[in-house]
Amino acid sequence: MAERVATYSICACDLEAGQWGVATQSKFLAVGSVVPTAEPHVGAIATQSYANPRYGPDGLALLRKGLSADDVVARLTEADDGHDRRQLGVVDRSGRAATFTGAECLDWAGGRTGPCYAAQGNILVSEATVDALAETFEAGEGPLAERLLDCLDAAQAAGGDRRGQQSAALLVVERNGGYARLSDTLVDLRVDDHTRPLEELRRLYEIHRTLFGRTPRQAWLPVDGALAAELQERLATLGYEGELADALERWSGSANLEERVDGIEQIDPVVLEALKEATG
Predict the structure, then answer these.
(1) How far apart are CA 31 and CA 27, in angstroms?
(2) Please, what are the domains in the chain?
(3) pLDDT lower than 70: segments of the chain
């Protein structure tokens, strides 16, 4: 018999930013390999509790046809003989949300929806976990990824999965928002097995933000003569000598910061700080 994915999760979107995402935590190995699915301008789906992994791709296919979140939940569960044991959350392209908890899901199990989010969980300490997901999202501001991380932290503080913690995941998609602006995957981070998975997920997100985040161009620093000389000296200390543009390009590639470098007329403050940290 399939193993239960005893989990809490939230599917959500930021329509203004064009982002859809799922965040989840569970006492289950590698929850990120099962629960979250999302596609920009299509929707986001979480499948859990004796999860049916087909709900992800099949649900997205229905969402692409323009079906609402409610209709997708109905179609998926009606066609599934095991629906009484399933749990499902869906947010569609317009921010409409639906959640489903089968009659045989183990207590506490249930969900809440609101504009642009569906929150759900099973085998929880209490309904306070799902309430915390919902209320934190409703009150949140800022990037979708960070709001979803805040939701997970609040849910855990409210009790979380009553079996404990093991894995967590964060998935956020945006059309051409990912690596090199050629990927739709803005954030895809997973903690597969850890005693404190939410803390580890947050740590990984901070690294991701450093490497792949975007500082508004107006906040970049002009590279005048003094700063150019400093950059040249610091790069040479690390073994990157020669013309400044070439040296900076080679070092930034080695440091995985190439996404934050664009010529030498200006420099991203994050790149400058990383160079300073590298050279002491």
Answers:
(1) 8
(2) 7-212 (3.60.20.10), 218-279 (no CATH)
(3) 1-5
